Amino acid sequence: MAGPGDRGIVLRAARDADGAGVIAVVAAAYAEYPGCLLDVEAEVPELKAPASAYARKSGRFWVAEGGGRILGCVACRPAPEHGLELEKLYVARAARRTGLGTRLLDLVEAEATARQAAYITLWTDTRFAAAHAFYKAHGFRRSGRRELDDASQSVEYGFRKDL
Question: Residues of the chain whose pLDDT is less than 50?
């Protein structure tokens, strides 16, 4: 799924063998924020084998690969009332502001269309201000707030886009 200006980055369905690369991208993103800790074993073990983990959830997981490494990822799974929940949208710092985040979001939006979803929803940490701006620029609106009892003591904003 390469396109003009993508610098050789290919979007593809994730394989379980991509787990280490996905974890590296997510861990690097978390490390940019004080107090944001990635505890794979306790909180996101699905990252170790993303393809099979999301298949069990009736979802999808994609990666962006370039230069022999994972540069980004995104996942989705069914949400209540004919919705789709976007999860795990991360882009390596070196690949940001290249349109890669939009390309990954487009995969989820295409999946939502294919499933005839009524909406897409997501949760993102309140510290991820650039992500909030990205989602708003793509038609999402803030739709809630929740506190998690996780290693990072996260507070998250919900976002929703009606289709």
Answer: 1-5
